Amino acid sequence: MRWGLTIALLICGCSGDNFKKVYLLENLRVLSLAASQPEVNAGSTVTITPFISDRTGEGRALSYRVIGCTDPGVTFGSDYTCDGQADRQEWVPLTAIPALTAPFYSEAAPTFSVTVPSTILSGRSTDDQFNGVAYLVFYEVVSATETVTALKRIFATSRATKNTNPVPTSILADGAVIAARPQAQVTLTVDTPAAQFEDYEISNLGQTISEKEDLLYSWYVSDGELTEERSSSTKDTKWTPANPIPAVGQTLLILVTRDRRGGESVQRLIYP
After folding, report:
1. pTM: predicted TM-score of the whole model, two decimal places
2. 91-118 residue pLDDT tens
3. Which residues of 98-174 form beta strands (DSSP E)?
């Protein structure tokens, strides 16, 4: 199959109302691929935890497979694919996923591990070795009727201080921790310690330049409306829960935090 085509479809989403509500947990999707270490030394082994959602599937049979390879040059126009790459590796053959549990069918799936090639930095420029070379991990989820593919980049670098996953503390509604399902529109923000906005350096022609992370928040809900499916430290989103309350009597809120350098974390909260 053509991985590039599949990933392009995931990025573009669907037409019509579903395109406007990508935050609504309905169809099969991979919400996150969180690595134990988003940035590593060459030759390191990394454990990845997928987080998937399949509410309309209602616990149907799902399987997954994992393919990996060194980035063939995606940022320079190469296809999102490992096909034809010398170090293409099938890390996990098609394997069953335990049934997702009711009522939300949205949770972490089995972890898996990949090993970044020990030679991934060989022959690379000093800048590339410092800034990092990506190892691509394709995670494919298969049902009887569809296939969804997600991509994770693990960065191998000579940088002494490696990137770590961001760890936000609390999700806030109108400035307060959400203790129960909101009854009206609220403004969602994230209480993230300043230390989570990591300082780091990049190399340009052998000269290091200081940078600071900016976190990106992706929101998913089981019901209601969001004004934005993504927010940041400078941009919020507003959530209006469904009225009347859905028959399940509970609401699922998922936050995926990314640092734009490969680090990410997931929070799954259920509100009565």
Report:
1. 0.88
2. 999 999 999 999 999 999 999 999 999 9
3. 106-108, 112-115, 133-142, 147-156, 170-173
